[in-house]
Every structure is written in structure tokens, then in C-alpha cells.
Amino acid sequence: MAIFRAGKRIGNMDIRIGLPRDKSLVNVEGDPRITKQRPGVNQSTSIGRFITEINKGEGVARANRFLIRLYPPIGKLSTSDKKGATAGTGPNSLETNEMITNVNLMCSEVKFPSRNIQATNFSTYGPGRKMPYAYNYTGALDATFMADKFLRQRAFFENWQNKMYSNQTHNMNYYDSYTGTMDIYQLGQYRESKREYPNDNHRITYAVRLHEVYPDAIGEVALMSVAEDLMPMPIPVTFSYRTWENLTLDQVAKAELGKAVPDMPNIKPSKNYGIFSGILAKLPPEIRRAGKQVIDKVKRDFPIGRTTGGRVFPPFF
């Protein structure tokens, strides 16, 4: 509730001003109380140290913040767009950059691959030691893709599998002719844009690259007469691969993670131009608000404003 409120009607304009009791919300960003230590972040306690460590990592990773990128074999699945190709009209439409991007975005579930260290028990005297002698990978990765009404995503992987063998002779093609690579990205965890991280939801925070990838199995798709109409049809695909590397730790292609993609420019606030804008900026918020209403009304009723649709040029804006 304000300490003082007053209103006056001048002509066809209704002007009201008031003085509020509390001005703590007028300049929230400049409030010195915000810079002080917040409750619950006392590092002398266990919960305080836990919150501090979470803040150092900028929060926790979200499982639904991910993206994949498939790189089919060059020369077999073409990555150049072909003019005249229409969705679902033939193999050409399944081998374009647009189709590959569509499949990447339609991935609804995937897992980061695992790596195992093989060890054997070795003992010379006393308790033995498990001595590593090799490492291996599971070699298989399951993923699920959402299908559109043409099931182009399933046809995309069927077309990829067709590069592995001949339907006429049943001969298998060379291994290097149908294998590609696959990247899996963990993205930033903030959905909303923030001042210090304006593009954090597109920031790659962790990534791996799988080598010698090909669709090993295209899973069954259940068709039911009674099904949830809003649920998209899932296309399960099992990929086979030979090895995988961490894009940062193993320095694959000199990748550097943790940066926004793309970098966002710093936009500076515009200056106050015109006679009225410079005067209003120096007034208290309550009077500034009332003055802005008067100027807006003048803009609409001023003859120039009527002619230009409310747009008034310097020095009157």
C-alpha cells in the first residue's frame, strides 16, 4: 500500500502517481544485501560444503539434455542434397544432409558407451593382485528414435543396411564401405537464458565419438489397435562400433568443450536520445511511469504521430 496516491484528469488523459512504502525492489540488482553470503552456504557445515561443490560444477547434469550426430560413410550415404527429392520418394531423399539432421534430432534415447578393463589374478606370495592385461568395449549401443508418419527414420537405417550387402548376390560388401562415426553430446543444464550464461542450453559439456559405427539391428515396432494417440512410434536401433574416445581427454580433432555454440555477442543498452527521454531517465520511478504515459498519449494524439502511425522522430521520441 502506498503512502500517498493522487490522480488528476487533464483533458482526455488520466494521470496517477503514488509513493510506495517499500523501495527495496526498485533496484534489485544493485542491492548490496544480495552480494552478502546467502543462508545455507556456510562452508563450515556438511550441507554448506555440498552446496558449494554443486555450485562449482554449475549444477548437476540432466539426462534429457543431449544431442547425437551421425556421420554415415562418405561415398555410400551421400551427404549432399539432391534437388527434386521429396520425403519418402526413394533412396535419394534418405541420403541428404536434411535427412541426416532430422534423424539426429529425432533421437529420443541413447546411452554413453562403456569401457571395461580385463584383469587376471596374479600371485607370487600372499594375497594376489588383479593385474590388468587388456581393455575392451561392449561394441553395441542401443538408441531409440521417434518416427514421423512416413517412418522415414526407419527407412533411413534400412537404407544404410542396404549398403552392407547385395540383395541379388547376397554378397557382403567391404567393412570400410559402410561404417561411419557417431558423436554423443551432453548439453548444458539450464533451460532458461541467464545473463552470465546466455546460451548455456546449447553448450557442449561432455562428448564422446564412436568409431566404425553401423546399424547392426533395427528392432521390432509394435502396432496396436488400442494405443496412446499422443505417443510417437519408437524406432529401436542397435549400433555396432569398435572403439570410442572422449573428445576432450583424448584430444580428438583438437576438440574443445565448454564453450557456447555459437558465442553470443554482448549487447550494450542503447543511449537515451531525445529531450524527453533524457529528462525521464533522471526522475524517480513513480513520476517516470506517469510521465511516460503522458508522452505516449502525446505521441498518439500529436499530428505527426497520427500521420506516421505513432512513430515520432527526434527530438520528440
Short characterization:
This protein has helices at 46-56, 97-105, 152-161, 275-280, 285-301, 303-308; strands spanning 2-10, 13-20, 66-71, 107-110, 115-122, 129-137, 140-146, 180-187, 204-218, 234-240, 243-246. By secondary structure, the protein is of the alpha+beta class.
What's the N-to-C terminus distance?
33 Å
CATH hierarchy class name of the largest domain: Mainly Beta
Instruction: Please tell me how large the radius of gyration is.
Output: 31 Å
The number of distinct helices, counting runs of at least 4 residues, comes to 6
- SS-based class: alpha+beta
CATH topology of the largest domain: Pnp Oxidase, Chain A
Mean pLDDT equals: 74
Shape descriptor: flat
Taken as a percent bin, the fraction of beta residues is 25-35%
**What is the helix fraction of residues, given as a range?**
10-25%
Poorly predicted ranges: 78-89, 260-273, 312-317
- The total number of structural domains is 2
The CATH architecture of the largest domain would be Roll
- Could you state the order of secondary-structure elements as H and E? EEHEHEEEEHEEEEHHH
For the report, how would you describe the main beta sheet?
7 strands, antiparallel
Total strand segments: 11
